[in-house]
Amino acid sequence: MGSLELKSIRKAYGGHEVLKGIDLEVKDGEFVIFVGPSGCGKSTLLRTIAGLEDATSGSVQIDGEEVGHVAPAKRGIAMVFQSYALYPHLTVKDNMGLGLKQAGAPKAEIEERIAKAAGMLSLEPYLARRPAELSGGQRQRVAIGRAIVREPKLFLFDEPLSNLDAALRVNTRLEIARLHRSLKATMIYVTHDQVEAMTLADKIVVLNAGQIEQVGSPMELYNRPANLFVAGFIGSPQMNFIDGAKLGDGAAKTIGIRPEHIGLSRDGGEWKGKVIHVEHLGADTIVYLETETVGTLTVRLFGEHRYAADDVAYATPVIGSMHRFDTDGRVVNSGP
Amino acid sequence: MSKARTSIVRTGAVHAALIAYTLVALFPVFLTIANSFKSRNAIFREPLAIPTPETFSLIGYETVLKQGDFLGYFQNSLVVTVVSIALVLLFGAMAAFALSEYRFRGNTLMGLYLALGIMIPIRLGTVAILQGMVAANLVNTLTALILVYTAQGLPLAVFILSEFMRTVSDDLKNAGRIDGLSEYAIFFRLVLPLVRPAMATVAVFTMIPIWNDLWFPLILAPAETTKTVTLGSQIFIGQFVTNWNAVLSALSLAIFPVLVLYVIFSRQLIRGITAGAVK
């Protein structure tokens, strides 16, 4: 069990509104990711769900129960923090067991749950150590273990991978995905990294300036962004935006094409241009092209290609791959 | 490493300055202790000489231990100092936690108000304090001294500790809240251990003026049973005749308890307790 419903959540600090009416429904067992740029309110929203911040108005319901005035410890949640937030003076085992101990669970049950969580995360050799004696990755696993031990209705993750190096980040990401499958628990995860969001989520919530821009599965957001912000935020490298007038499209103010939906040729094509920079990544080649008609384009080619700066090349968009946006930045009628 | 750092002249100059300062700072202490072991004549004949077999004398210490209840004075000083430090640390840390952790109307103003005492000496209020103590029937009790010293130490304690408590990770406190720790448990079990170095600093800064104070013991608690060491030593200083042996011996003795307290606190100054808590 673990469903969540947010109804018109608002949060203001003084006169400054951080959350401007958030409505959201999370079903039991879903992996939902809040993603957005820094300062968009995603962490505040997570902390409001946790009860660490009180919403100025609106209601938070966990399993259909209003929890607006319930203490964080009684909400049936567990949270994993970016900075791990382990208790420095307690051993790994005590760190994991503290929540249950506070709740007055019997000793045998605490032991059993710690053993189970430690097994899942291969933390057994470290149970007697203190956080200072662990590496960053191990500390974050302990923090995740501490959450698992509580057997919460909702797991909340606040940028849990931001402090880890790139290799560990991928490993821990896999670990979290595996945990979600084996625990079948509802998880809410905050990140500013759209790759994390795309790889982990069942459902992504894109936030910007305290408002939800779009909610959908990763592929929905990729294929049918509802507005300019989502189109630009999801996908790497970023989508190309072209002034609609330049393409003679009266209905659309802006036209977006993803870099991977543009073909490049030396012989001929729709837009002639000069290569200004090339990034060879092995699996991909990213070409930056200064075109005569539509400005600078980013083109992503799969595999290796022998383009170099100052080469002349012709770009051609894949038919039906254009996203058209009106003057307010909303999509007019999207591509596939 | 940069050239400037390895320059012998530069390092030498720095060391010379530090050594000179150390000598200047330690000289009075050395003089007090050295002369306390000399006979009266030797003190006046050669004040700077160290005690030799001819000039060595314990007459000062004998006088101190015989005359008056010096052990009692020590006890009074210790009780007043230790209890005051404990109260200053407890209430100072609590106020600092509230100021740094909770958002409420007038937070900044309250912080400034509490810090005001650093700038305004408490002695300005001596007359009012004395009147208050008389009215409360607390004159000639150690309680009077403890109350005054607690008030005197709190502003600095609140100021220093609230700055330090701001540096304690919010995530850690929030993790405690999610694990069901009460605000008191978060304060005592998570925050206090992490600001121990700051607590030790505050303790040292609070301790020295209390131990050395003559003013308030003289005014609030001059009775024989409540005299502190500094006040007790004054009996050897007369208007016309001063028993220098006794004064110097009493002062030498008075250094040691405070030295012990200092050593205890300075051990806490060692950092690294927070390592591994965050990042």
TrEMBL record, chain A:
Q: What is this protein called?
A: Sugar ABC transporter ATP-binding protein
Q: How does it sit in the membrane?
A: Peripheral membrane protein
The cross-references to PROSITE patterns, in alphabetical order and at most eight, read: ABC_TRANSPORTER_1 (PS00211), ABC_TRANSPORTER_2 (PS50893)
A Pfam family (short name) is: TOBE_2
Q: Which CDD domains match?
A: ABC_MalK_N
Instruction: Write out the GO cellular component annotations.
Output: ATP-binding cassette (ABC) transporter complex, substrate-binding subunit-containing; maltose transport complex
List the transmembrane segments.
none
Q: Name one GO molecular function term.
A: ATP binding
**Sequence similarity:** Belongs to the ABC transporter superfamily.
Recite the UniProt keywords alphabetically: ATP-binding, Nucleotide-binding, Transport
Classification via InterPro entries: AAA+_ATPase (IPR003593), ABC_transporter-like_ATP-bd (IPR003439), ABC_transporter-like_CS (IPR017871), ABC_transpr_MalK-like (IPR015855), ABC_transpr_MalK/UgpC-like (IPR047641), Mo/tungstate-bd_C_term_dom (IPR008995), NA-bd_OB-fold (IPR012340), P-loop_NTPase (IPR027417)
From TrEMBL, chain B:
Q: ABC transmembrane type-1 domain: from which residue to which, for each copy? A: 74-265
Q: Which organism is it from?
A: Sinorhizobium saheli
TM region(s), chain numbering:
12-34, 78-99, 111-130, 142-165, 186-211, 246-265
Name used for this protein in its record: Sugar ABC transporter permease
Keyword set for this entry?
A: Cell membrane, Membrane, Transmembrane, Transmembrane helix, Transport
Q: List the membrane topology term(s).
A: Multi-pass membrane protein
The parts of the chain that form a coiled coil are none
Q: Where does it localize? A: Cell membrane
- What does the sequence similarity comment in the record state about its family? Belongs to the binding-protein-dependent transport system permease family.
**What GO biological process terms does the UniProt entry carry, in alphabetical order?**
transmembrane transport
Q: What top-level branch of life does the organism fall under?
A: Bacteria
| Cellular-component GO terms for this entry | plasma membrane
